[in-house]
Amino acid sequence: MHYDVIVIGSGIAGLACALAAAPARVAVLTRGAFGEDGASRWAQGGIAAALAPDDSPSLHARDTLAAGAQLNDANAVRRLTDGAPAAVHWLDRIGAAFDRDGAGYRLGREAAHSRARIVHAHGDASGAEAMRALRTAARAASHVDVFEHHRAVRLATRDGGVRGVAAIGPDGAVVFAANAVVLATGGIGALYRYTTNPASADASGLALALDAGAALSDLEFVQFHPTALAPAGGESGQLPLLTEALRGAGAVLVNGAGRRFMPALARDAELAPRDVVARAVWAELERGETVWLDATRAVGAAFAQAFPTVYASCRARGIDPAREPMPVVPAQHYHMGGVRTDAFARTSVPGLYAVGEVACSGVHGANRLASNSLLEGLVFGRALGQRLAGVASAARRVDLDVDAADPGEVPADVDAAIRDTLWRHAGLVRDAHGLALAAARLRELARAAPPRSAAAARIAVAQRIVEAAARRTDSIGAHHRRDAVAAQAG
Ligand SMILES: Cc1cc2nc3c(=O)[nH]c(=O)nc-3n(C[C@H](O)[C@H](O)[C@H](O)COP(=O)(O)OP(=O)(O)OC[C@H]3O[C@@H](n4cnc5c(N)ncnc54)[C@H](O)[C@@H]3O)c2cc1C
User: Fold this and answer.
1) In this structure, are residues 412 and 235 in contact, taking their beta carbons and an 8 Å threshold?
2) How far apart are alpha carbons 81 and 363 in whole angstroms?
3) Is the Cβ–Cβ distance between 338 and 356 less than 8 Å?
């Protein structure tokens, strides 16, 4: 099949790009149900934009740089925060119903933002509302064809550039040719024992890019959320997120003895930065404690109305968060690193572009500011689409010779081994010894994996992450080291 542009992924980044690319003919490939299978739909907090009279894109940029430990690309940050208000207005125009206060948006405030600037919808259902609007617009757009249940398995290269994609669909392999291929495949949660990400966030975009020879950057910068709902048994995988807004509303973290541990560790106690709270929860668990998030006093009877998404997750586990504390573990939440992109979302391989969580545009530095990732997908996705609109006139039919063999699924034992290795040795707390153990374990797994298999591809990405973390342990990694954590824990 021939298109002008192929977009792999139907989250916020992929759909923003596809919609903006008219009149180019765009194929959107997505591995599950259209617009429902990525993390975007699950986002709770919202989208950050300087819309308040006391706010400005430069203040938003300053907060973004501070959160990122100044390791961000300052120009990319400016493009992000300058573009934020227009991106929110565009989403509004295509039908997203954000919560309003009189004539303007009701703006929330989140940790590390110096102003109220979070646009949200139906309380904690912001991502679902944004995706509803994008899905509807994409379905109505005559230049967009959607291929649901199509998993991209290989990029096709020709004359040194990417010119297509091989995908496995319901009826077998399909090869798509195009002038431009956009990776919008989301995150890497499937590499970790616990994650808040959906199953589709399995690092396949990074694996595709790696296989095509594209450069990856900042892979060691992985954000862990301090409070996911702990699993009932020992199972690994996706866990429901217990939003930061609960701690914002006064919920406290306590250990098995009912003792709060955050006030002794950080001035802002439970509202300290995400990484500080996450490592403190990890340290308690490592000591053999259980950790609980207690909202019974702070939220109590208002829980179901104030936090409907969290309430539903707890009730599904037989927990009534209005009356009892919720058991928590930290969980992998977001990848700041990814496929390296320039100011035009180009990767290092001609014809291959990346937007959204799979990309490393440099906006997040070492740590993402809350509610900046839906924003990144929107702003950079639209900007890329607008540039790719021009490729329609340059469309040229090519025949591709690509290996379209099904690489299969990652076997359950290999999946578990990767998750455990990264969680234990390349997770919240890292040191040189643990990273060397992780590297050795991944080498063993790589030796046993069949060539060109999905397992080999995922292991290769895990290896790159561990190598990047090992290179970093002596610089920013200071706060990832066990001794630093021990000192903080006092
Ligand atoms: C629980 C939760 C809450 C969050 N809350 C917020 C928030 O409030 N604000 C905020 O800014 N961010 C939030 N985030 C982060 C944010 O949701 C994500 O970073 C963002 O949605 C990523 O968008 P994306 O378009 O890059 O990827 P996604 O929305 O994850 O979409 C990826 C798409 O790629 C597809 N795909 C993947 N691999 C393949 C393949 N091989 N072939 C075909 N298709 C493929 C997937 O099926 C999916 O359609 C949250 C994340 C989670 C998990």
Assistant:
1) no
2) 10
3) no
Instruction: Give the least confident one: 58-72, 95-109, 433-447.
Output: 95-109
Q: Is the peptide bond before 23 cis (omega within 30 degrees of 0)?
A: yes
Contact in structure between 229 and 313 (CB atoms under 8 Å): yes
For residue 241, the Cα-to-chain-centroid distance in whole angstroms is: 13
Residue 488, pLDDT score: 32
164-189: per-residue pLDDT in tens? 999 999 999 999 999 999 999 999 99
Q: What is the residue with the minimal CA distance to atom 9 of ligand 1?
A: 371
Other C-beta atoms closer than 10 Å to the C-beta of 279 total 23
pLDDT for the residue 396: 62
Q: Computed over its alpha carbons, how large is the radius of gyration of the chain?
A: 22
Whether the CB-CB separation of 466 and 435 falls below 8 Å is answered with yes
Average pLDDT over residues 413-417: 97
Measured in Å, residue 35 CA sits from the centre of ligand 1 at 10
Which residue, among 181, 251, 167, 224, has the nearest Cα to 480 in the 3D structure? 224
Within 13 Å of residue 10, how many CA atoms lie on the same side as its CB?
A: 30
The fold of the 5-220+336-392 domain, in CATH, is: FAD/NAD(P)-binding domain (3.50.50)
Q: Is residue 234 pLDDT above 90, yes or no?
A: no
- The residue whose CB lies within 8 Å of the most ligand 1 atoms, and thus the one to mutate among 150, 361, 374, 375, is 374
Does 309 sit in the ligand 1 pocket, CB within 6 Å? no
Is the domain 412-489 a CATH 1.20.58 member? yes
- The pLDDT of residue 426 is above 80: yes
Please give the distance, rounded to the nearest whole angstrom, from the Cα atom of residue 187 to the centre of ligand 1: 6
Top CATH class, 224-331:
alpha beta
Does residue 273 have its Cβ closer than 6 Å to ligand 1?
A: no
Sorted by where each begins, the domain ranges of the chain are 5-220+336-392, 224-331, 412-489
Which of 219, 215, 205 shows the shortest CA–CA distance to 154?
Answer: 205
The token duo for 73 is: 């690309």
Alpha carbon distance 51, 300 (integer Å): 32
Q: Is 112 exposed, middle or buried (0-12, 13-18, 19+ CB in 10 A)?
A: middle
pLDDT of 394 reads: 54
* Per-residue b or e along 449-466, where b marks 16 or more CB atoms closer than 10 Å to that residue's CB: beeebbbbbbbbbbbbbb
Report the C-alpha gap between 41 and 13 in whole angstroms.
12
Can you list the alpha helix ranges (DSSP code H) found in 330-411?
373-388
Helix (H) or strand (E) holding 155: strand 151-158
Q: Which amino acid is at 398?
A: V
> How far apart (Å, rounded) are the C-alpha atoms in residues 419 and 203?
12
Protein residue whose Cα sits closest to atom 39 of ligand 1: 185
Distance, in Å, from the CA atom of 383 to the CA atom of 393, rounded to the nearest integer, reads 18
